[in-house]
Design goal:
The structure holds 2 protein chains of 2 kinds.
Chain A: H1 3-36, H2 42-46, H3 59-90, H4 95-108, H5 112-126, H6 133-157, H7 161-169, H8 174-202, H9 206-209, H10 242-251, H11 258-292
Chain B: E1 10-11, E2 21-32, E3 35-41, E4 44-46, E5 50-55, H1 61-68, E6 78-86, E7 89-90, H2 98-104, E8 105-108, H3 119-129, H4 135-148, H5 152-155, H6 168-180, E9 186-190, H7 198-211, E10 216-220, H8 224-230, E11 233-238, E12 241-247, H9 248-253, H10 258-265
Parallel strand pairs in B: 1-12, 5-10, 5-11, 8-9, 9-10
Antiparallel strand pairs in B: 2-3, 2-4, 2-6, 6-7, 11-12
The chains are: A mainly alpha, B alpha/beta.
Chain lengths: ~300, ~270
């Protein structure tokens, strides 16, 4: 075989492999959407779920998922920004920071069910938060923080060193250079990481089963005072999210239309995750153009 | 490489009262970790003149230049000893406010490094951080510095486009404009034209010759013709020592040291 032929064979193989992956992904996506979307109605999206009869909705689960997402991002975004900025810009290179990086690497590959059990022991039992949105949000933070931190650090590291020198040479302090030169230049990457992290959190079930719980108390959507026990915003109430709902009706659901509800929920879940992904791309690009002053073209 | 006797030196002493000195170093040593890169260099730079630092790769000229405004501080494990005198102050002492000092001793780097911001913001960003808020003053600053850097005519219609959309030569001139917007006394340039095409290089050189009226310029260059064209003084660096320092015209016509002679005539190494 000549190198030329080898090149052809290798190229064909790579095309086949990528094609296979795309086909599998497209099949999954279409299967979920085609089997789920027919069950999706406004009543389904906003309605209350039912325990025994058919025709239940997923309104509360969807609300819980979004609320939990916001709460966990509120905790994890500042933490990951701080940790990422420290690791990238301030941390000296020594065994301790190497160890921290390794820890983060290991944490990011922790199975989510382990994170869930850890959250159960620490947040629900030890800190006496019980099955609550707060426990869930903290568990999701543990689950998400390593990847977010890594993403922030990588995005900052991708900003060329000469950018920092440019800042220093103009008499800017390191903090000014980091906050006004490096972070803005890295912001599109950071934003993309955050939104993709949000997608991961949104679809997470295992980490929440033991922390946020598998049911929601009766909610009073007319009272938004977070301290009120039946308020949807009360962070100390238990909350079943969409992903947990799917898991639950498939494992122990006794409603007659379990498969339809599950398919519809999955479709909604997938649609939201897709939405996050496209939003990540759109806002990442837009932000980059805004920050760099580049014109929007075409 | 041919071994040159590094004890043979000719360093013109400018601090004789006849010349106004903008910046000088006294026995400056720079080391990275355990390796010493600069072995005690003492030079004085005359005000409103262009001084070129020449020498082969690894001769230490860039390291020397970068220690003058303490850019090496940020490189882990770097140690700089000796004096860097600026206006009667030792820049290399611990109680110097490094950030304040860098407003007076500006720098342009080898690679053009505009911020990922608009042309306008590239120039006004640092002055704004240092407290200049008046729009009129900032507008004027942008126009003046871009004119001084020879870039105004090409970008005046679109100051809010991204600096990253400019060509390499334009970016480098923007970086010069950005540096002089701080109105430094001294401008350090680390091979600013090495990545530029000949036309951009010529523009940058013209720019420097004009800037010399208001600024003291110290420039590292690999390009001997460039040193000859624009500089008033030239220092020749070899393996971490300054071996010869004199008026450029003398360095290029009648060098006193063998190593310098070989280097400028291309017989070096």
């Amino acid at each position: 075989m000549t190198p030329r032929k080898w090149d052809k064979v290798a190229t064909t193989m790579l095309y086949l492999i990528s094609g296979f992956i795309i086909v599998v992904l497209a099949f999954l996506l279409l299967y979920i959407l085609i089997s789920g979307l027919p069950h999706v109605t406004w009543k389904f999206i906003t309605g209350r779920s039912s325990s025994f009869a058919a025709g239940g909705g997923i309104g509360i689960q969807l609300f819980n998922s979004l609320y939990l997402l916001i709460l966990s991002m509120l905790i994890s975004i500042p933490l990951s920004l701080g940790a990422g900025i420290y690791l990238s810009e301030y941390a000296p290179k020594n065994w301790l920071t190497d160890l921290i990086r390794n820890m983060i690497e290991i944490l990011s590959s922790l199975p989510s069910v382990v994170v869930g059990l850890f959250g159960f022991l620490v947040f629900s039992i030890n800190m006496k938060l019980g099955f609550s949105i707060l426990s869930g949000a903290l568990a999701l933070t543990v689950f998400n923080l390593p990847l977010l931190t890594r993403k922030v650090e990588d995005s900052l590291q991708a900003v060329h060193y000469t950018q920092r020198e440019a800042g220093y040479a103009l008499g800017l302090s390191r903090w000014e250079t980091v906050t006004h030169v490096v972070v803005p230049a890295a912001l599109p990457g950071i934003l993309t990481g955050m939104i993709l992290g949000a997608g991961r959190v949104f679809g997470e079930a295992a980490a929440l089963i033991y922390t946020a719980g598998q049911s929601s108390p009766p909610l009073d959507f007319s009272n938004w005072n977070p301290t009120y026990i039946a308020s949807p915003l009360n962070p100390l109430r238990s909350a079943e999210t969409l992903a947990v709902h799917i898991w639950k009706i498939n494992s122990e659901g006794i409603i007659p239309d379990a498969s339809a509800v599950s398919a519809g929920s999955s479709a909604i879940l997938i649609l939201f995750v897709l939405l996050f992904n496209f939003a990540a791309r759109y806002f990442g690009n837009k932000l980059y153009r805004h920050l760099t002053g580049a014109r929007e073209r075409g | 490489m041919e071994k040159y006797d590094r004890s043979q030196r000719y360093l013109k002493e400018l601090d004789d009262g006849q010349h106004e000195i903008a910046l000088s170093t006294d026995d400056l040593h720079v080391s990275y970790g355990t390796k010493e890169a600069i072995h005690g260099v003492s030079l004085a730079f005359e005000r409103f003149k262009i001084t070129a630092l020449i020498g082969a790769s690894g001769s230490g000229k860039s390291t020397y230049l970068r220690s003058l405004n303490r850019m090496n501080d940020n490189i882990f494990g770097t140690k700089v000893t000796g004096k860097i005198m600026y206006r009667g102050l030792d820049v290399n002492s611990n109680d110097i406010d490094v950030y304040e000092m860098r407003k007076h001793i500006g720098m342009v780097f080898q690679q053009p490094n505009p911020f990922a911001k608009s042309i306008y913001d590239n120039i006004t960003f640092a002055p704004k951080r240092h407290g200049e808020r008046r729009k009129a003053a900032l507008d004027e600053m942008v126009e003046t510095t871009l004119k001084q850097a020879g870039l105004w005519e090409q970008v005046k219609d679109d100051l809010h486009q991204s600096a990253l959309a400019l060509s390499g030569g334009q970016q480098q001139r923007l970086c010069i404009a950005r540096a002089i917007a701080m109105q430094p006394d001294i401008l350090l340039l680390d091979e600013p034209a090495s990545v530029l095409d000949p036309i951009s290089t010529a523009t940058v050189e013209d720019t420097l010759l004009q800037l010399k009226e208001h600024y003291t310029i110290i420039i590292v260059t690999h390009n001997m013709q460039q040193a000859g064209r624009i500089s008033d003084y030239t220092a020749f660096f070899h393996l971490g020592d300054a071996l010869e320092y004199d008026e450029t015209r003398k360095i290029f016509t009648r060098p006193k040291i063998k190593a310098t002679e070989d280097y400028v005539s291309g017989h070096f190494g």
